[in-house]
Write a structure and sequence with these properties.
Layout lengths: L6 H15 L3 H11 L5 H7 L4 H8 L5 E6 L5 H13 L4 E6 L4 H10 L11 E4 L6 H9 L5 E6 L13 H15 L2 E7 L30 E6 L2 E6 L2
Helix pairs in contact: 1-2, 2-3, 4-5, 7-8
Length: about 240
Amino acid sequence: MKLSAPIYRLKRQAKSMSRERGIPLNEALDAIARKSGFRSWSHLAFAARSDPATRILRELRGGDMLLLGARPGQGKTLLALELAVAAAGTGRRSFFFTLEYTDADVRNRLASLGLAAGEGEIPLVIDTSDEICAAHVVARLRAEACPAFAVIDYLQLLDQKRSTPELGAQLAALGAHARDTGAIIVLISQIDRAFERDDRRMPGLADVRLPNPADLKLFSRTCFLHEGELELAEVA
């Protein structure tokens, strides 16, 4: 499905609609997307990119830990799911760990991509346990006979329980497991809303919302999304 206008113009239309009608921006974005023939803004944003998952997966290597960051409505969850599905197609055991969505939510999002997870379908393990943290993820990945591919939704929620180690320690544990086993771990991340007040094309590590300090240089790669564009880079 083709866009009716460049994505930056559609977003401007949504911002105007938000102001004129006095509705939240996310509602206006979804309204513009439906007017363009898409189910939601995230679906539109995802469609605006040409097979990004395959391109990203070609760049990733065993041992990588990738931060996938964007503001709401940019399609980061859909991209992460497609990455997990694409990785499963390469023979890796793929996991989607989420503290944000229910199992049904994840399956609905897969369905919006024309995909399905389950026995005889896509070999994607969906884990919605309330106990998700670095130790939980590492324990599940360690049980696999071959290097796994894992998406964690999302970075900031790993930092919400006092009973778990601080975020920096969890990132270090995840990175060590990836390097030791050849696993690839992707963490979805929120971007601070202050980014939208700046006249910049793409967010960066400095824009990642961190409730508590953490060394983001523990990531080996970053992938940022904004208005249909994607930027993949190595962490210096």
